[in-house]
Amino acid sequence: MMGTQLIRLVKASIPYVFSVSLAFGIAGLILYLGGYDVVSSYRTILTASFWNLNSFFLTLTKFSTLLTMSLAFSIPYISRKFNIGVEGQYLMGALGAALVGLAMSAPAGIHVVISLMAGVALGSLWASLPAFLMARYNVNEVISTIMMNFIARYSVIVFAMSLWRDVASGHPMTIPISDTATLPLLNPSPPLSSGIIFSLAIAALLYFIVALTVVGYELRATGTNPRAAEVFGVNTRLLMPLSLIIGGGIAGFGGALDVTGYYHRLIDGMQSNYPSLGILIALLSKGKITFIVPVAFFISVIDVGTNALQRIERVPIELVLILEGLLLVFILVSESLRWWRK
Amino acid sequence: MVVVRPYVRLENIYKRFGDVEALKGVTLDIFTGQVLGLLGENGAGKTTLMNVLFGLYKPDAGLIYVDGRVVRIKSPAHAIRLGIFMVHQHFKLVSNYTALENIAIGMSSGIKSLKPIDLAELEERINKVMEASGLYVNLREKIRNLPLGVRQRVEILKALVRGVKILILDEPTTNLTPQEVDTLFNALRNLVRTGLGVVFITHKLHEVMAVADEIAVLRSGVLLGRFKRSEVDQATVIKLMVGERIDLEKSIIFRGFRQVSTSARAENMPGPELLRVENLSLRDRLGTTILDSISFTLSRGEILGIAGVSGNGQREFVEVIFGVRKPTSGKILLEGVDITNSSIRDRILMGMFYVPEDRLSEGISPTLSVMENLVLGIHFTYSTKKLLMDFKRVRSDALQLIKKYEIKTPDMATLASKLSGGNIQKLMVARAFHTKPKVLIAHNPTRGLDIATTERVLCEVLGLKSAGSGVIYVSEDLDELMLISDRIAVMYKGRLVGSLTRDRFDKYEIGKLMAGVAGG
Lengths: 342, 520
What we know:
Number of helices of chain B: 18
CATH architecture of the largest domain in chain B: 3-Layer(aba) Sandwich
Distance between the termini of chain B: 56 Å
CATH class of the largest domain in chain B: Alpha Beta
CATH topology of chain A: ABC transporter involved in vitamin B12 uptake, BtuC
Strand order of the largest sheet of chain B: 6-7-8-3-9-10
Number of domains of chain B: 3
Radius of gyration of chain B: 24 Å
CATH topology of the largest domain in chain B: Rossmann fold
CATH superfamily of the largest domain in chain B: P-loop containing nucleotide triphosphate hydrolases
Strand content of chain B: 15-25%
Mean pLDDT of chain B: 90
Largest interface: A-B, 21 and 29 residues
CATH architecture of chain A: Orthogonal Bundle
Order of helices and strands of chain A: HHHHHHEEHHHHHHH
Low-confidence stretches of chain A: none
Largest sheet of chain A: 2 strands, antiparallel
Number of strands of chain B: 22
Oligomer: heterodimer
Helix content of chain B: 25-40%
């Protein structure tokens, strides 16, 4: 039994390995043509994350954010709903945590817990409007969640420019939240937030729910064939919007983790390009949480590695971004290769 | 004696789909001027073989001769140019075009297709063909307004007007009334006399016995024999067709209607009322009536057969009964309890279960495992404290079901999408019988099953009957309905017309009801 599963896993990973090698091949060619040292560039991309504690912690921090974002996409995805609104939900979660961290005062442990809860609440609230529109009026969740992203982005700016604006900064951001609202550090210097523990715990919890509970079974049944699930008594009309709201909650939690654990304030643009990377990770993993964890880590390593390329090999940032894009495109192509093999 | 050269010769044809070898070196001659019955159970490779000839599949190996020359048939258009036409089970007609326009489609190709077709001249030609064959169609009517039996005639006319030499009909009697079957058979006899060659694909022995000059038997991709109809007895053909897997003496299917009628079932006459349906109506969003005040009762130990040409509301009917759709008006009572507005889950808990017609879109969850699929619908009964799935129990039950229903799967963790159509059907049937339903609603439950498995399904249905359950058995297969039903009602344009008890079963009487000729 284990043997055949292992063989299956190996078989399934062949196209990935192939396309990743191909991507590195082409990236190498471009670097070579640009006159850069190809071998040392490769080494940089793959190993930069492990050079020192600082870059390793940086990788873990990115990993934590990417993990929550792809989980936020994957739960609705399992029931066949596309939560493109990860970005907005993440930002609103961040805003909620910042609001509690700035406006409230409470004892240390309690304050941060309330902050995180506010993040989850605002994130799921942000997803519930699209969920409601979908359930009630059949509005496509892709469109509505994208719209909610815009609203969230500008809400963050408005919030960051109002009462708690950091006047010392030229960029829209708030002043730091109270110390009582910050997450404890796992390591003081270089700093590593305990957020990573939370996101891994969320991944474990979600895996447990999806794989082993009745609701998880119904979510999966809904996603693979909503009609069959409905015909056999699964309440898909409730599950689909619910999965979107849960996804929103997870994204909001991710935003709150980053505010309380890493940035300690709300910053315009703090989501960076992570939402799209998160969605990409979830799609690559077909929503399977057991795949999401390693894939998210791999993408974080690549991200940190290509950034290091700029500093170490003096490859211009534009080229770095192109390389990163190429790698991701090829990994995506490998996905269709897998389909084609059937 | 003059040796007649076959118009088509298929030589040593091989075809493989993934792991399945569909054709294992089939050699078959097809002559003009005769009806060749291509007999075999579902999955034997009959349709695949003819699809190869019609240019839809490329054979992995083997040669095709047409009129003595080797050809590589590239496409259906190419096959038609070679004088070969195939009418599939699902007709390939444009529904908002008239019959005439449908026949005209594809008559010319390339640059010539820019020239308008002379429809008047075509119509005249078609009229002649209609007279010669006895297959009449109102050419000015749009396809969507024509019944299925007439649409089939349009397909056949399409072939005849093109002057084809070989006409292939894939299970042509599906969805025909017995009267329409007679008309079709007469027409085929007429056409053969004028020199047409017909290949008649079927899994029903009595059909080939009625219409074929020669019978070729195919099993698991191998041609096992070819006989003149006049020189062969039924038992030989059946043995070839199904192999040794079925005990013909005990078989429900081969024992025939009379025997089943007297022995296996008679001891268990229908008991007290189980399900009552009153004035059930359904209208769609536009207000069109789909179901029109349907009333009936189902008793314990009764099998109610619902006959009818597909598309007369059968699907909506079973969906309303099982709660997939809400009726516009009317009442459904299960053992006296009004379940009209109960959820599907409540109905399942009360002992209803369902085998949907469309196995791919409604029957399975493709990316769930076979094991998980086997409990879909009753999965919540496998929970501990309503929260965790008890996969241990799911596994042991699944193991049993896979064995009992001979579901061919590498293991139970295999995704359901990897199963073949027949095995998916087995899975759906296994799931339904596993719940030991009080009321089973089965819609074409034996579609695509081989004879051994069909036999098993019919046995289980009869088993439910003797256990005191009621079965609503909706099928397009009148033979099967007559075999197991206690009562047959006919669905016609959303109404339930007629209701014949077993002693009054008459194929032609039911046929009239199916065609809407006799009033209920």
